[in-house]
Amino acid sequence: MPVPLQEFVRQVLLENDRGAKFYLAVHEAWEAVKTDYQERNRWRRKTTLWAVMWEETVKRLAEVVADDPDLMLIEHEDTVSIIAEGAVLFRLKHASPALVTSNYPTPLAVAFDDHSVDLYGFSGLQRVELCYVPDQFSETLIWVGIAARQDGHHLWKIELDGAGTVAPPIELPLEEKAGDPAKLARLKPQPDQDERGKKNDEEK
């Protein structure tokens, strides 16, 4: 299976406004959680919040899939993924600000970012994660986007917003390095005092 390619995934998200629709599905799910579970801060297990959030988000993503003929919702191993255009598989995850997700280390979970193997009966798919990141108090979402990893190492990310994918920051040109001092203009050598004296005598 290929390593996920950032620009390829970005184009898949731009098609049919998928990036914007994914973003809105996540935020609508979060608003539903805040409205329907106002006592969530009393829950002893914080993972309960993210389990509920996952369910609410999947419900809304299923509606997005239903309106897009090139999206497919698949259920496997007690989870759900979305396949876009038969090329990219998205897995939904709650993540930390460093885009670290938590998974019980089952063989399938460990293999998700091992791009030398195929999973779930599909071959050749680029596997990435659709992540939502809360603030430290779990009061608001501070980031929604796509993250790619390989063998546990972060590869790249794409931020999403209501307009689709957020353009990457413009990289300013690097500051020019100081020129080689040997190539800089030098002062014209000045004649010594005896030479200046001889020149003055000649001009008299």
Note down, in words, how this protein is organized.
- With 204 residues, the protein is α+β, with helices and mostly antiparallel strands.
- The chain has one domain.
- The protein is built from five helices and seven strands; from the N terminus they run αααβββαββββα.
- It has a seven-stranded mixed beta sheet, covered by helices on one side.
- A hairpin with a 6-residue loop joins β4 and β5.
- α2 packs across α3.
- The protein starts with 5 loop residues before the first helix and ends with a helix.
- About 2% of the residues have low confidence.
DSSP strand content: 15-25%
What's the overall geometry? globular
Q: List the strand order in the largest sheet.
A: 1-2-3-4-5-6-7
Structural class: alpha+beta
Q: Give me the count of strands.
A: 7
Helix tally equals 5
Order of helices and strands: HHHEEEHEEEEH
Radius of gyration: 29 Å
Distance between the termini: 90 Å
> Low-confidence spans: pLDDT under 50, at least 5 residues?
183-187
Biggest sheet layout: 7 strands, mixed
Keywords:
204 residues, alpha+beta, 7-stranded mixed sheet, 5 helices, 31% helix, globular
Compact summary:
With 204 residues, the protein is of the alpha+beta class. The chain has 5 helices and 7 strands; from the N terminus they run αααβββαββββα. A 7-stranded mixed beta sheet has the order 1-2-3-4-5-6-7, covered by helices on one side.
SSE layout and pairings?
Elements: H1 6-14, H2 18-36, H3 47-66, E1 71-76, E2 79-84, E3 88-94, H4 107-111, E4 126-134, E5 141-150, E6 153-161, E7 164-165, H5 193-203
Parallel strand pairs: 3-4
Antiparallel strand pairs: 1-2, 2-3, 4-5, 5-6, 6-7
Helix pairs in contact: 2-3
